[in-house]
Design a protein that fits this description.
The protein is an all-alpha fold. It has a domain of 60 residues. Helices cover 51% and strands 2% of the residues. It has eight helices and two strands, in the order H-H-H-E-E-H-H-H-H-H. The chain is flat and about 110 Å long. The two termini are 63 Å apart.
Length: 164
């Protein structure tokens, strides 16, 4: 189907006599607009005579005192917040004991073992290596080849892969 035959009508239709009566219709509408004398806004008769007095009363009205006084342009609330912050910092400075340290000799090995078994502390391998630099774990075999082969022969490898 060609584009020429596809659309037979444009979809827009103009009523008959539209353009012949167009100027007459515009003339009627403009006459109706000019005949309206009311603007749509109404003002009371004495509005403008009392307007000056109303404006002056609002301007010269005494301002009520603010609830907070200002010191050098900053309200008292801000000064109080600064003072409270300084007071808290000074209190914390003197109450926290700077010499309070934990001596490793006072901690027993059973306490450390309890922490590890109860998962109260988490160890990272890097932290362990930093704590004990004299121990070299790179040369030690954690698992022997025979033990690994025995373990894998008894387990289904596919299940192990799915679990991990």
């Amino acid at each position: 189907m060609s584009k020429q035959n596809k659309y037979k009508t444009t979809g827009f239709q103009i009523p008959k006599g539209y353009f012949s009566d167009f100027q007459k219709n515009i003339a009627k509408k403009t006459e109706a607009i000019h005949k309206q004398k009311a603007t749509g806004f109404s003002v009371s008769a004495d509005y403008f005579s009392t307007l000056d007095d109303a404006i002056l009363n609002k301007i010269t009205k005494k301002k009520t005192a603010n609830k907070l006084l200002k010191l050098n342009g900053i309200s008292i609330k801000k000064w109080m917040a600064v003072a409270a912050t300084v007071l808290i910092l000074i209190t914390l400075w003197f109450t926290i004991d700077k010499k309070q340290t934990t001596e490793w000799n006072n901690i027993s090995s059973t306490e450390v073992e309890l922490w590890v078994t109860e998962d109260l502390i988490e160890f990272d391998t890097y932290q362990i290596f930093e704590a004990y630099p004299e121990i070299d774990l790179s040369d030690t075999d954690i698992f022997k080849d025979e033990n690994v082969l025995d373990y894998l022969s008894n387990k289904d490898v596919e299940l192990l892969l799915l679990d991990n």
